[in-house]
Every structure is written in structure tokens, then in C-alpha cells.
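tool_call: predict_structure(chain=1)
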Amino acid sequence: MIELIAERGLAVVDGLDTPEDLLQLAHSIATVVPHRDSGPDGVTTIADFGEAIVRSGFAGFSTCALNPHTDRSGVPYPPALLMMSCSRAATTGGECVLIDGQAVYDDLAVSEPEALAALCTPRSVLFGGAAGHLGSIFSDNGDGRIIIRLRLDELARFASEVDRWIPVLRAAIDRHAIEFRLSAGQGYILDNHRWLHGRRAFTGQRVVHRVNGDPLPATGIRTGLRAWASSDAA
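tool_result:
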């Protein structure tokens, strides 16, 4: 599992029958980082609250589809790992939608380098509203890696030079999207600095649990994207 996360940024896991199972797994590989919506232990239970009006930033607590995004885009240092488990599957729909940011970055580097340059422009996107983070969709983490940071809802405001390229970014995301359905007891761990995640709309009482964290040094997990260079095309 650790090897998969380190190499591909993603691992699918079975045997996560309870939130406690997810939390035990999280503590074995990461320092748990609390979320705005989590309990004191760092576990967030995500289910439909049944509210008639979905508030900004709370679409996860509905039956709506979720655009591909990274967790905690509005904070300066988003947690590096996202760990999810399913305790009750949807009746219909609810498929997980995952996109490898490395594939999107490499795609744009070849097909739309002007777009990629714009998406790397510092201070070109305000994530999370007025009190959020001013950054870019792709940014240097200072350690030779690239971090992807994205949300595509009303809590992201793009500078004009970025906004014009969002349809190109969306098309690249669609080209590299994968979908799968989680059954009860299944889950996944992904590199939140590399992978985007979303979901399809659903019916029924779907319940999943989420934990954010940063990998323990002993795991050797290095998160983020490898920067593309012209020599890669050789």
C-alpha cells in the first residue's frame, strides 16, 4: 500500500468497515490533520444532510455531484493525504471520480503549454473566499515538486488570464478521469497534492468517512507532481 501511494499517489483499500478502522489506518501512515468539519479525532462523516439549499463549501453534505477538487485548497498548506472509506453505499450513483494531476499536467505541457503557463502563475487564484489562500492551480512546493490545488465552485476566483483557460483544463481533466463505485468496507488513500477527487450525484443514504493527514517520515512518501521538462518528450 505505501509503495502504491509513493509511486502512483493512490491506493484502494478493503476492510474499512468502521470509522475506527479508517482512523487506525490513518494513524499507521500519517499525522492526522483536523478538518473544519471533522470531529476531535479528525474523522469527518459525509452524508446527505437533506438541506433544501446547499451552502457554499458544503455540497459534500448533499446528494449533488461534486466537481473534481483537492481538499483544503483555501489554506496555505493543504494536507498531503486524503483517506476515505465507505460505510454505506448509495442506492444509485455516487461513483468516485478521480483524476491524476500528473497526467493532466503532462497532457497540458504537450498540448497546451500556454495554458499550463497561465495555470502556474503565482497569485492568480483566490481559493476559499476572502479569507482564503491566494495562489495558483499548479505551484512549486519548494522541494522540486509541483502541487495541484483546485476547486471549481463559487469559492474559487480566477484571474482573467487563468479564467480563459479553465475550459481547456476541464477538458484535460475529463480526458483522464476514472470512475469506480465503493462498496461498504472499501476506501482509498490518495495524494492530495497530486490527485483530484469528486463524485457523481446519488440517491439513497450514502455514508462515507474522511481523514486528512501528512505522511509519517518513515513511510518515505513524497507527495506532489514531477515537473515536466522538454527532455521528457525524448
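agent: The first strand starts at residue 10 and ends at 13. Proceeding to next step.
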